[in-house]
Amino acid sequence: MKKKKVALFDLDHTLLPIDSDYAWGVFTQEIGWSDRAAFRVKNDEFYEHYKAGTLDVHAYVRFATEALRLRGPQEAAAGRTRFMESVIRPAIREEALSLVQQHRGAGDELVIVTATNDFVTRPIAQAFGVTELIAVDLERGADGWYTGEIVGVPSLRAGKVERVTQWLAARGLDWASVEATFYSDSMNDLPLLERVDHPVATNAEPPLRAIALQRGWRILDLFKEP
């Protein structure tokens, strides 16, 4: 029986040349939703932990969503629209759109798998024409608005493997019934890269590039300047 082909894409520094989560934080302090100096220091600290693989994702999400939670649904949505137009759309490169389109044209199932929360990333996935998004799911309280907590397994490090496994199971699939490709830049994604059939180190940070070279994985410099 022919296996279903699934193309999994990390988002930040993989399909995008920027980190959308970090950029959202900078954007919110630039528009006055938080104290500029204090926010930048804390945001930078969390970002360094992410790059080092030591991020406390629960603490980070509480911090990262505080500004939008305080603003409420309408103002938060308006801010996100501004963020998409001023920060994200200018960062979407033709190379990334073409990569996604290659897999779409081949009939592959497309999924973005990101450690950034779903509030920030849902419209970004839509901009790439990808309907299937596995992101950090934010909890909503009795009033329907975000609490600052996470629902379920955070899609970070080994959590990405668990979340993709859940996604497959919900569709009556498992790892044995699919042929999966995963594109990522980050050592944080090593567990999922090791799990798929075709790992692709994309715009890879040096430690991941070294592993890819050692293991004979495909290396793709999607945003390589001429």
At the first level of CATH, the class is Alpha Beta
DSSP E strands, number? 7
What's the end-to-end separation, in Å?
Answer: 43 Å
The domain tally reads 1
**Unreliable runs:** none
What helical percentage do the residues reach?
Answer: 40-55%
Question: Can you tell me the overall shape?
Answer: globular
What integer value in Å does the Rg equal?
17 Å
**Second CATH tier, the architecture:** 3-Layer(aba) Sandwich
State the secondary-structure class. Answer: alpha/beta
**Strand composition percent:** 15-25%
CATH topology: Rossmann fold
Instruction: Assign the CATH superfamily.
Output: HAD superfamily/HAD-like
In round numbers, the mean pLDDT is: 95
Quick structural summary:
With 226 residues, this protein is of the alpha/beta class. It contains nine helices and seven strands.
Plain-language structure description:
With 226 residues, the chain is an alpha/beta fold. The chain has one domain: HAD superfamily/HAD-like (Rossmann fold), CATH 3.40.50.1000. It is 50% helix and 20% strand. It is built from 9 helices and 7 strands; from the N terminus they run E-H-H-H-H-H-E-H-E-E-H-E-H-E-H-E. Strand 5 (178-184), helix 8 (190-195) and strand 6 (198-202) form a beta-alpha-beta unit. Helix 1 (20-30) runs antiparallel to helix 2 and helix 4 packs across helix 6 (118-127). The longest helix is centred in the middle third of the chain and has 19 residues, at 73-91. The mean pLDDT is 95.
Write the layout of secondary structure elements.
Layout: E1 4-9, H1 20-30, H2 36-52, H3 57-71, H4 73-91, H5 94-105, E2 109-117, H6 118-127, E3 132-140, E4 146-151, H7 158-169, E5 178-184, H8 190-195, E6 198-202, H9 206-215, E7 218-220
Parallel strand pairs: 1-2, 1-5, 2-3, 5-6, 6-7
Antiparallel strand pairs: 3-4
